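Problem 12. The chain below contains 312 residues. Write out its predicted structure in token notation.
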Amino acid sequence: MSQKIFKQIGIGLLVTFCVTGKLQAQTDPMYSQYMYNMLGINPAYAGSREAISLNAFYRKQWVSLPGAPQTTSVSVDGAINDNKVGLGIQLYDDRLGVEKATGFNAMVSTRVHVSEKGVLSGGLSFGMMNYRTDLTQVPNRFTPGDPAFSQNYSKWMATIGAGLYYNTDRFYAGVSVPNILRTRIATLDLITSGIQKANDFHIFITSGVVLDMSDEVKLKPSVLLKAVSGAPVQADLNCNVWLRDVIGLGASYRTGDAIVGMAELQVNPQLRLGYAYDVTTSQLNSFNRGSHELMFRFEFGRNKTIKSTRYF
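Solution.
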């Protein structure tokens, strides 16, 4: 393809996405309820709840904006070998404009007690991702019938991630790189100029704590820092209030992007449901009606095998 065609493709994708500043942040899926989807961020989290845990997430971002991100994720993890080894698997489908990424990641972690209540874990993830672009759906093409937009691209690629995770029953901290190989956008050599840095790997730093306000009220502040070269560091600052370990209400602020309201319900010791709604604070607020996110968690046998409440 000539340089002119490269530019045409880039312009077409930009029109589809309707925003340039968010492309870098969206090459990896984003979750408002990240504290309940840690396996999707850090493979070292696998097995940390010491029960077989099924998690499902669905996120529809920037409602009413054409080509806005839409993500579905389902994962299962648990611990074996006297809780010294964690195993997990995640299936995902991530869509943004004319590009789609579908795949799976398998996680393994080793867990070592470093104190009476503290556990340090190191984890790796290995997977495959099918990256697809449907260039025939790019709107506002300058030349109808342009051969550069007459075909689709599809390719399977390997993914590798790594992370460290430390937790007690009341505190956690972790650092991870979910995708070391940097396999998205630039792999197809479709986009040049400033967007090419969107393929640099992301670094995630997370931490949270549980504070007792009374016998029935607990405060759970947490933070997620996301860094990628060529873009400002983004922070998710969150605080949840849990009432009797049954109802959770919270709010988050995502720097430069959104204010989030959250609600969780612990239906029984095994089942938890959650919902989050994002109000956009960036320049995109005039073009969308916010973002919706649903969370489902079911833990098999937790009421029999785990006596204490696990907050993370």
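Discussion. Residues 150 and 185 are 19 Å apart (CA to CA). Students who got a different answer should revisit the alignment rule from Section 12.3.
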